[in-house]
User: Which sequence fits this backbone?
């Protein structure tokens, strides 16, 4: 009698394994469904956020000249890629004034667009690290940049 009962139990063990695997999968699926449904729903329509807004950055676009009268000079770049005013690189006064005039949207990040019109050796790593130390903000240099006045800057919101 014991041999028959053991044989029946041995036959049902693979079925129990399958049942436990399916039960485990159902538990995992239910947990995932519950986590997805517990997220708060934002009923307010989202405005188009830029990547910089989502990352908590305040991008400051500066143009670095490499030839002629712009050689070694840095300028604030406007919405239409026009040169607004010169920014001194040896002291932080001009940059601090720019930051004070802007609404505080996040951590400032200077995007230094280095001109493709001449030789960019004047904007060496040594000079960029000195500017970063003097200004107290991160600097992301972009080589080479071709300025086209009248063209809207990438990532900017139209006025």
Assistant:
């Amino acid at each position: 009698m014991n041999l028959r009962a053991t044989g029946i139990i041995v036959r049902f063990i693979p079925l129990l394994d399958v049942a436990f695997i399916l039960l485990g999968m159902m538990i995992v699926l239910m947990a995932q469904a519950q986590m997805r449904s517990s997220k708060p729903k934002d009923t307010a329509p989202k405005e188009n956020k830029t990547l910089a807004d989502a990352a908590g950055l305040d991008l400051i676009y500066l143009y670095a000249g490499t030839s002629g009268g712009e050689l070694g000079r840095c300028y604030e770049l406007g919405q239409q890629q026009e040169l607004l005013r010169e920014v001194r690189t040896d002291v932080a006064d001009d940059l601090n004034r720019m930051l004070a005039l802007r609404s505080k949207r996040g951590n400032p990040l200077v995007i230094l667009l280095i001109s493709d019109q001449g030789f960019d050796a004047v904007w060496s790593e040594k000079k960029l690290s000195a500017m970063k130390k003097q200004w107290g903000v991160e600097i992301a240099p972009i080589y080479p940049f071709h300025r086209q006045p009248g063209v809207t800057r990438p990532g900017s919101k139209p006025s």
